[in-house]
């Protein structure tokens, strides 16, 4: 029995974590509990040194001094201020008027506003709830199919998951040891393809079933001509300017993601003040929600540090690498299995939990197979997007359910009785968009250039002009990372966020 536990402590530890999570315990505390429990078990079995947990303070300090994670509260605060400033309402009203004469015009407006909100707020809940409160009653008023209306709103809100400045892209870049700016550049084209694919679905429905996506009636189109142009300019220019302020400065290298987030938060405050929506109550609410989300992320990250310390100590990373590299099919086989694993776990875990638990295990394997980690990260971000649309646990579906009418009501404009939206209609409406998300994962696997274009901005260097001088052991200027002559010329390995701890094993 002792020998069996000693050889299989890593898989038992991982399975124990899954069981505890399925029992409903908070993820941060479940991670820390499993890490401490199996750490003490390993110490008692003399598989791990008694000084194992002495590394925890350094790990906690390392995370708290990680400047990349500062972008999370900045972008969260920016999104919450914009969500409360009335920007979403103005955008939906204006773009709805622009596309009013077209069948599916309101659905197009929801998709395009979802993309703009994604590029400014980066918060899925804010996008879904805002559009659900504003556009869903209008879509029901003018006869939209309930499944299409619900699915379009829920799916458009999830664009905040993949279109920069997405919070999950920041987390993935940190866990993969890659630049947030490169992750943003790599995710931009797939994010725009999502917008096109969602709009394409509405076009198909307009052709196959026109009554399900009617055009806006003439009496509802109150803005025309110069008034419509003026309203569009007033509504669109400020958020587009904010997008350039945040993403443009990051892409051209003027600002880091953290600095871009700070500028975005400042810009959001300015826009809210210009709209005369900025007050103390809004500030207090936004700051409270930002602190709550940031604390949630940090606690999960610290729990993951405790878990990974023990997991790497019992050679769990070796077990995962052997398991994943043994999959037939090489690189493609690994990508398929990794995406199936993430898709399955997304039924039970949200994207933060997946990023902190699964990514540190898969990233070293992907790197050893020569897979571009930005490509791999964007691919998994698209896959994690499905966690918002999975019936019956998708968070977007829950957000929409919270604002969708649960009982019949009389419309205040037409006076007609509007029937409620059932949970079944919300789930059925989500399925076509879930299929689009899965198809996008396959497209990104087949066409890596959709992501790896981020490399095209790198400075080209002619190899023939490079002169290399390899320092000899003991020379001045030898590799500072080398501990002796044998290590000269080596480059430090990529840190995936959970390095193998050094337990001070005795040297021969």
UniProtKB/TrEMBL annotation:
The keyword Nucleotide-binding does not apply. It is found in: Cell inner membrane. InterPro entries: DctM, TRAP_DctM. The chain crosses the membrane at residues 12-43, 64-82, 106-136, 148-172, 192-211, 232-254, 290-312, 332-349, 356-382, 430-451. The keyword Glycoprotein does not apply. Signal peptide: none annotated. GO terms for molecular function: transmembrane transporter activity. Coiled coil: none annotated. Keywords: Cell inner membrane, Cell membrane, Membrane, Transmembrane, Transmembrane helix, Transport. The complex comprises the extracytoplasmic solute receptor protein and the two transmembrane proteins. PANTHER family: SIALIC ACID TRAP TRANSPORTER PERMEASE PROTEIN SIAT-RELATED, SLL1103 PROTEIN. Part of the tripartite ATP-independent periplasmic (TRAP) transport system. This is TRAP transporter large permease protein. It comes from Ciceribacter ferrooxidans. The lineage of its organism: Bacteria, Pseudomonadati, Pseudomonadota, Alphaproteobacteria, Hyphomicrobiales.
